[in-house]
């Protein structure tokens, strides 16, 4: 199971193991990682599962599709080059050690 | 805080779903330090409903992924979730409630987050085996199982849930007919432009859509559904019927306690009902909405956004820093590969500007009221949706012909 390290708003890190195929958003919700709201439950409709992906891992992710790219225009916190919607990142073996930064706000 | 408040105060929540969970979570976040009890009459941990008609029926989502929050979340936030427990009576004057097992509980704040239930089909045959409705996880699992065996399905009602079910089941290879009483699909919620697109989308996926059609009766054979008879006399053979004719609010507890109800438990923008200390939030509540064409009339909206935002407002009241709910209503629906997103509340008398070509499957409909953007409804244009929420919140003024110009960029309307 890949491990994901969530860097929280308060600077603390929460590390969780999550099965391949699960989305980073689901891993956060199911492991009680605060700061990822996911109001639409992963339907790619709300942009409240916004995260910053650590640059070392960002390049390894498949490109966002058009829907995600457009939704990212509406994130509540600052949009950065490493912004992604965590419900659209599916875990694969190569993402073991993934570092995710939780943004300041989702609303 | 109410005069009866003991230390520590108790917040009792009836209903363990979006509204109840958000209230509990936000009250804690805002510093409410008393006891929080959340009673739900379902056996599950609170779970997500939108995927029931979307991902779950199409196989894209699993039951395990539906949890709204993890069990740890409730433990950490000291939210006592009591599953499988119905609240059977509330007494606002005595600040008590009674549970189905006969025990009683004193509360300082009571929040009714009881949601809504499917409207029952009024015609003969509604009780036949093979007639389904969709509100709960158990409903979805039953429908999923029936769909494995079914071949021909008749969906009664061309609203969001009926159409999402139609799309999901058509995608699974079932032969689907949608029967709608009104002259167009989704007539309450979207503009005719979007209705037309949705009708063509379903037609392109070989779903038969019959508008202006009333169901007269459901016929069966050996207790199982076999056909749906329309008022026109036409009989649609089917082995599965899905009713999507809307919901009714679960307002019985409030009614019995003498709390003012009008198609839902009437509240203000902080979730306050007519009974002191009693709040109502989510699908069961009817609340004046500043973005509606009639902003002073209590309006019951069924959406995650309303459940969350009114719950946040109610939590702010409980925590002693009241902040009324003024959020822009938004909603979405996924059908096949199309993503419908609605920001604001349209009214049939709004002026309408279409941007983009509906034939391309990606376009936006802007609704103008009194010269201002009152609603934005998009098909597979999430950027316009996100922008639309801001434009509606700011009641942005714009001339229809400016907005209609394809070279005009509506993003320039947001002050930088
Ligand atoms: C299939 C489906 C798809 C949907 N899709 C979308 C969508 O795409 N976008 C969107 O925004 N919204 C969608 N919705 C609507 C959304 O799910 C509701 O708006 C939301 O669930 C409302 O939350 P709530 O907490 O007010 O009520 P509910 O979710 O209805 O929960 C109320 C809970 O209270 C319980 N309860 C009732 N009375 C009692 C009692 N006396 N004692 C104890 N418990 C009680 C009920 O059993 C229920 O569990 C969808 C709904 C369904 C059914
Ligand atoms: S959970 Fe809503 S966009 Fe990711």
From TrEMBL, chain A:
<dbReference type="Pfam" id="PF00111">
    <property type="entry name" value="Fer2"/>
</dbReference>
<feature type="domain" description="2Fe-2S ferredoxin-type">
    <location>
        <begin position="2"/>
        <end position="106"/>
    </location>
</feature>
<dbReference type="InterPro" id="IPR012675">
    <property type="entry name" value="Beta-grasp_dom_sf"/>
</dbReference>
<protein>
    <submittedName>
        <fullName>Ferredoxin</fullName>
    </submittedName>
</protein>
<dbReference type="GO" id="GO:0051537">
    <property type="term" value="F:2 iron, 2 sulfur cluster binding"/>
</dbReference>
<dbReference type="GO" id="GO:0005829">
    <property type="term" value="C:cytosol"/>
</dbReference>
<dbReference type="InterPro" id="IPR036010">
    <property type="entry name" value="2Fe-2S_ferredoxin-like_sf"/>
</dbReference>
<keyword id="KW-0001">2Fe-2S</keyword>
<dbReference type="GO" id="GO:0009055">
    <property type="term" value="F:electron transfer activity"/>
</dbReference>
<keyword id="KW-0408">Iron</keyword>
<dbReference type="InterPro" id="IPR001041">
    <property type="entry name" value="2Fe-2S_ferredoxin-type"/>
</dbReference>
<dbReference type="InterPro" id="IPR001055">
    <property type="entry name" value="Adrenodoxin-like"/>
</dbReference>
<keyword id="KW-0479">Metal-binding</keyword>
<comment type="similarity">
    <text>Belongs to the adrenodoxin/putidaredoxin family.</text>
</comment>
<dbReference type="GO" id="GO:0046872">
    <property type="term" value="F:metal ion binding"/>
</dbReference>
<dbReference type="GO" id="GO:0140647">
    <property type="term" value="P:P450-containing electron transport chain"/>
</dbReference>
<keyword id="KW-0411">Iron-sulfur</keyword>
UniProtKB/TrEMBL annotation, chain B:
<keyword id="KW-0285">Flavoprotein</keyword>
<dbReference type="InterPro" id="IPR028202">
    <property type="entry name" value="Reductase_C"/>
</dbReference>
<dbReference type="InterPro" id="IPR050446">
    <property type="entry name" value="FAD-oxidoreductase/Apoptosis"/>
</dbReference>
<dbReference type="Pfam" id="PF14759">
    <property type="entry name" value="Reductase_C"/>
</dbReference>
<keyword id="KW-0560">Oxidoreductase</keyword>
<dbReference type="GO" id="GO:0016651">
    <property type="term" value="F:oxidoreductase activity, acting on NAD(P)H"/>
</dbReference>
<dbReference type="Pfam" id="PF07992">
    <property type="entry name" value="Pyr_redox_2"/>
</dbReference>
<dbReference type="InterPro" id="IPR023753">
    <property type="entry name" value="FAD/NAD-binding_dom"/>
</dbReference>
<keyword id="KW-0274">FAD</keyword>
<dbReference type="GO" id="GO:0005737">
    <property type="term" value="C:cytoplasm"/>
</dbReference>
<feature type="domain" description="FAD/NAD(P)-binding">
    <location>
        <begin position="11"/>
        <end position="306"/>
    </location>
</feature>
<feature type="domain" description="Reductase C-terminal">
    <location>
        <begin position="330"/>
        <end position="413"/>
    </location>
</feature>
<dbReference type="InterPro" id="IPR016156">
    <property type="entry name" value="FAD/NAD-linked_Rdtase_dimer_sf"/>
</dbReference>
<dbReference type="InterPro" id="IPR036188">
    <property type="entry name" value="FAD/NAD-bd_sf"/>
</dbReference>
<protein>
    <submittedName>
        <fullName>Pyridine nucleotide-disulfide oxidoreductase</fullName>
    </submittedName>
</protein>
